[in-house]
Fold:
Amino acid sequence: MAEAAPILEAPILEARGVSLRFGGVRALTEVSFAIRQGEVFSIIGPNGAGKTSMVNCISGRYRPTEGGIWFGGQEITRVPVRRRAALGIGRTFQNLALFGHMSVLDNIMVGRHHLLRRGFLPGMLYWLGGAQREEIAHRREVEEIIDFLEIQHVRKAPAGTLSYGLRKRVELARAVALKPKLILLDEPMAGMNLEEKEDMARFILDLNEEWGMTVLMIEHDMGVVMDISHRVMVLDFGRRIAEGAPEAVLADPHVKRAYLGEADEAVRDLDEPVTA
Structure:
């Protein structure tokens, strides 16, 4: 497991008794947990366990049928998506959501949209007002993110022309451009080869340890989960069945049955984490 960044006791995020139904189907049932500021918190579980549904409740795409979400001590259960971004919640998606025709630089600039202070008129009077200076300042911060994620060589390329691994990195850059306090990563390693996974794991750790971002991550690669998570929660059929340190959670017999299956072979494989 990664060396922990300083973790404060007060939770940055709390879910209290969150349930979510779609018609007669229960996606989540009374899920409660808290994420402390400064940690990497991973949610794991079988396909259809409710992981993305939980993240969608946190980001505001879904509104819980019951229960609530608190962020920084403030209830945000009914706060719209855009306002949550302004409060400091950023996210990436399981399926890439980039603008393929736009350059990498412009895709990342979109992530800073809510930080722009000037309204329509100063924008029209771009060269006379302060909008030009503001854009220069934003571009400077975006360039810092581009350098950090090592995508300088594709900064002017259309996002749609990049390899899958680079597009995942650009989407992470756009989420980082929000300057979030909490970043939600939905399967950031999906579809990547080993080298790309190691790079992504390194970037996530640096965001946590050097940039001070709290991370909530959904991930299927147990090697990565074991290597970089401070704590792990397991969902199964929309219910929380375990939570704690990665080693303890993956040793839980309920987790082995639900997530790993009964086969000893699978359990042995997951006892050998990949080093990021």
